[in-house]
Amino acid sequence: MNNKDDKKPDQVKVQSKDHKTGAAASTGLGPVPGQPGGTDPHQPLQPVDPMYAPFDPVQSDGLPPYPGQPGFGPGYQPGKPAQPGYPDYPVYPGYPDQPGVYPGMELARAYILIQRWGKVNTPARALETGTLFPELYRPYPY
Amino acid sequence: MDHRNQVQMLLQIQQLSIVATELNLFLDTHPNDQQALNMFNQVHNDLLKAVRNYEKIYGPMLNYGYSPAVQNRWKWIDSPWPWEIKY
Fold first, then answer.
1. Handedness of CA A86, A89, A92, A94 (dihedral sign)
2. Which residues on B lie below 8 Å from A124 (Cβ)?
3. A:B CB pairs within 8 Å
4. pTM, rounded to two decimals
5. Which of A15, A54, A69, A134 has an alpha carbon 20 to 30 Å from A31's alpha carbon atom?
6. ipTM here
7. pLDDT tens digits, chain A, 142 residues: what are they?
8. What's the total number of domains in chain A?
9. Domain-located, residue A137
10. What is the count of structural domains for chain B?
């Protein structure tokens, strides 16, 4: 999955919210007015620089670069072999995120359907099959 | 010793236990489901009854105060350990 494309809509939303309200109160990314460390609620809200970056990069902290920082790798790109996220990426033999391993494969998104109340097993069958709910026993009906 | 009746009563308790466990887990994610709540309370009562019936005959199922001593003798040390019951 392409991290950059994934991040873009979020960042645009956060920035436009900052621009309108002058604070990142609901994002948790900035000081909240009236809270310790926040601005005085009686003072008019200061206009915020629209270039405010939600993840202000800390330079030369010895850690691998964050997404968007210089030095951060390109990540997975469709059609190209998988690449590590940063140059000193440790090598895990056989792990899928290695150049040349499982080329063309992508990460997946998992989702789980919410269960709905229906018919239930008898206590004897529940103990036998390991579940009270017949829909949780293979073959799954949906 | 013939454990057939004891095994039968234990089996019923195990069956009610898994039903209670499953309803417990269902209610964790569906806390307002009235059908599940009703069934959970019903199963809870049945499970308590089954355990109390068992304890009347075979002694306490739990120790350290979680089961009453219903006989006029401390039965905890008399009754077979789970691995001594012939299933």
1. positive
2. 15
3. 34
4. 0.54
5. A69
6. 0.87
7. 444 444 444 444 444 444 444 444 444 454 555 555 444 556 666 655 555 455 554 555 666 666 666 766 666 566 665 555 555 666 666 665 555 555 566 667 888 889 999 999 999 999 999 999 999 998 888 7
8. 1
9. yes
10. 1
